[in-house]
Predict the structure.
Amino acid sequence: MRRLAAGAAVLLAACGGGVPAPAPAPEPRASVLLLTIDTLRADHLGVYGYTRNTSQHLDALAREGTVFDYAYTYWPKTRGSFVALLTGRRDAQTGYSKTHPGLLAFNPTLAGVLQAAGYRTAAIVDNGNVAAAHGYAKGFETYRETWQEKALATEMDRARAITEGGVRFLREAPRDRPFLLWLHYVNPHTPYTPPPPYDAAYVDEEARAGPRLSVVPGFHGGIPRQWAVPGQRRLGYYVSQYDGEIAAADEQAGQVLRALRDTGWWDRTVVVVTSDHGESLGEHGYYFDHGEDLFDPSVRIPLIVSAPGARRGARSQALASTLDLVPTILDAVKVSYPPELAGRSLLGAVKGADAGWDRLFARNDRNLTAAFDRRHKVVVTPGEREPRLALYDRVSDPGETRDLARERPEEVRRQRPELDLFLERAEREWARTRTLLGGVPSPAAMTPEACASLRALGYLDAAKQCATPRDSQ
């Protein structure tokens, strides 16, 4: 009887009867590693053609993924940039402004969307401008603010802590749950003080060359007084120190990328490396700062994307914005978008289709607006009676030194409609967003540690935002 029963069971199984086999478990979604390096110019990385060896680890990542040759920030200051980067929305949608300089709670964020989809979400950051008090921790289960830790006395102490924390997270991450890990290094933001051996690595003939500069009280016309190094007046020296900070940050990023491989996460992780903005190194007489203008030194950034199953060692000519990172990442991990995104997915470009924008836009804290394609850039500066338009041809004039608006009125007329449409849309969006701002509280007072961090980075108006002793208790 036992044999008959066994035989019947085999027969039923063969005929498709009996208990059905369990369905295979779905493949877990890919994880996400977002590495952001503050104040990083694309043209100072080897993968973008720089002659100094500042970025061997990022260059190696580029050989594993796709490099975007035309990537730009939407907002060339840290706070506004990360609001756009983490939401995929324009300022008129997010409510970001001088009166609300943070990531307001009514905005869906990359971390919040992924957390709702079952992801572990963690961030380790260095820059008081992205403090949790200003909303940037929304959606993160853990949010480590390294500047708050008194044991981390220097910028490199904090950079190493970010790396060590990131490596530890990768080693301990459970295999059955995807993650979003955001690591933000403040280097190479001013002051340019790279650690050995990078402080001397690029002090060569080029570093001893260049114009001799005066020491000045602000950021225009020479070396800002707070960054002046005794006995160093050549522009080349300060550029060598900026490059040294890039190399130091690259080393830290390299350790995280190596851990991603060593822990077995590499083939299951979307890796995005970018920056919040660039840096002006004397262009237009603007030294060692960013964001007052919308010229390329401040708005052009690196963007490298590596994703499972995507191309390796590819370059994309697609125009890419920081607004595009949320839809790109969500597309790559197959998670639905939140509504009303201003960006679009670049995953097609990562996989070989050069889809992208025909034109990008950028704005800044001074209410300047730029509209640009690969060749022309139109910049609108508010005026008392009417706005002033400037036109730059970035092919014939890569330094954007000649305003051609009067010489080429036909080109201004060609560019103007897209710009007008952008500004009109912004007005409509602001009208809707203002209805959401009524119940938004005033910006939170910052802790003394955050104030000290911002002052060290050269934010001289940080005192206006700083906490009183009572506020910080």
